[in-house]
Amino acid sequence: MEEIEIKELLSSVKDGNISVDEAVLKLKEAPFEDMSFARPDFHRGLRQGRGEVIYGQGKTPSQIFEISEKLLFHGQKKVLITRMSPEAKDYYEAQPFESTDHLFYHEMSGIGIAYGRDEGENGSDELKGKIVIVTGGTSDIPVAEEAALTAEFLGNKVVRLYDVGVAGIHRLFNKPVMDEIMTAQVIIAIAGMEGALASVVGGLADCPVIAVPTSVGYGASFGGLSALLSMLNSCASGVSVVNIDNGFGAGYLAGMINRG
Questions:
Q1: How far apart are CA 64 and CA 62, in angstroms?
Q2: Integer Cα distance of 54 and 73 in angstroms
């Protein structure tokens, strides 16, 4: 239950559409449920403004499906699923939906979105602000799409600027690209190899920059550790860093900054 739902519930009591006892019963619903393998948090939206997200990696397809259905049944309008495998997507779509209207799936990023019965895929809310996502190369796009789809899920307008890394830095200084960077509310800079893109963008922009190191690169990149250390040691002010390949964390944090 999110804050807007609490307000709607109280308005319904005020207007006489439901009784006080019915409202109390609704508010007394357990904040979570013990499913033996998971305890889905039904009050996450009330506490934090956004409902619970399912991390799909390491969970079985049936666990993902059951948790998602449980969250939707208890009032969450849509559920974001990260690191969802194609096998989990196929399993989900083969089940008889009770609370889900349909499932959106983006294979490259592993993002799934389960929509409730009353929630259209486009939603009714206008996307807010502008989050610009830049990548060093095409190989960084899977992580970038995880960030982009997460931010869009949370109601943010996203602009994608892919393959503008320092190996051909003139691409970054192209006027249309610079115009987007200079008018962003938040920038997510995603790069592997040596991770230099975040410092360059941080030296140009007047907004917060969230750096995401990726595991893209040859042996000495150590699976993204080289990029992570470069970004942590950035001399550009206003650059923060999330973990290697953590597009979700960057998209979520950017959405919180954009909302504030």
A1: 5
A2: 15
Q: Which of 21-35, 181-195, 208-222 has the lowest mean pLDDT?
A: 21-35
What the block records as the tokens of 20 is: 């006080």
Over the stretch 183-202, which tens digit does the pLDDT of each residue have?
Answer: 999 999 999 999 999 999 99
Q: What is the largest CA-CA distance in the chain?
A: 67
Structure token pair of residue 88: 């989990």
Contact yes or no for 254/210 (Cβ under 8 A)? yes
Ordered structural domains, the chain, with CATH: 31-116 (no CATH), 128-259 (3.40.50.1970)
Measured in residues, the chain has a length of 260
HEC-encoded secondary structure of 114-176: EEECCCCCCCCCCCEEEEEEEECCHHHHHHHHHHHHHHHHCCEEEEEECCCCHHHHHHCCCHH
The answer to whether 168 and 191 are in contact (CB under 8 A) is no
Give me the amino acid identity at 210.
I
